Amino acid sequence: MTNRSNKLPDYVKDCLRNTANSIGAALDFLEWPNGGVDAHPDEHNVTAYLQACMSHLEPSFHFYSEARIGEKNGRLDLLASNGELSLAIEAKGFGNISNQSSQLINDVERLLNFSPSCFKAEGFTNRQWWETSSQRWGLALILSFRGSDLQEAWCMDDDGAAMAALRKRRWGSDPESPFMKLRGLNWTERFAHKIQMDDRWRTTTADGWLLCGAVALS
What we know:
With 218 residues, the protein is of the alpha+beta class. The chain is built from seven helices and six strands; from the N terminus they run ααβββααβαααββ. A six-stranded mixed beta sheet has the order 1-2-3-4-6-5, sandwiched between helices. β1 (62-68) and β2 form a beta hairpin.
């Protein structure tokens, strides 16, 4: 079965927007609890808040962290499904942009052929819930506090304009850089939601964004 839509449902985008807002509110309230420095927040915050936002949806979603991908392909950050829509989700935090971009490229390649490795035993029949979902999507979510230039480069359609935005801070402006390669993957959609924070953080860290890449899975 193939996806009946080539557009990620709006309610998923709304949950991603709420995830970004929740991360910002938590960093404000908890005073950026990172050992007294403004080090990059861990990417597990993305999957935790996304799960919290999606847990209120109807029909209800079921979630599983670190779902196995086959026998040798590692694990998935978050698997979610309500039987109609199924999501395979990988998250990264942009501390080292090149290194994290390279890792995420590998993650996305695994997403393109993803199907869950469910329990199998003689005489046991699986429900085939993944196969029968009317929509299946792979999501790559990037927690970034590298400023608006990187966000603009992620969302722009034109490669030249994206590299011009990156050159403002000399981040991945080479067309062969890992970030540009990540950006150039065959995404169905690329978008971003701002992580809203109190203005006092502007003196310690760049603007925060949740960068999102969505790919429709066959």
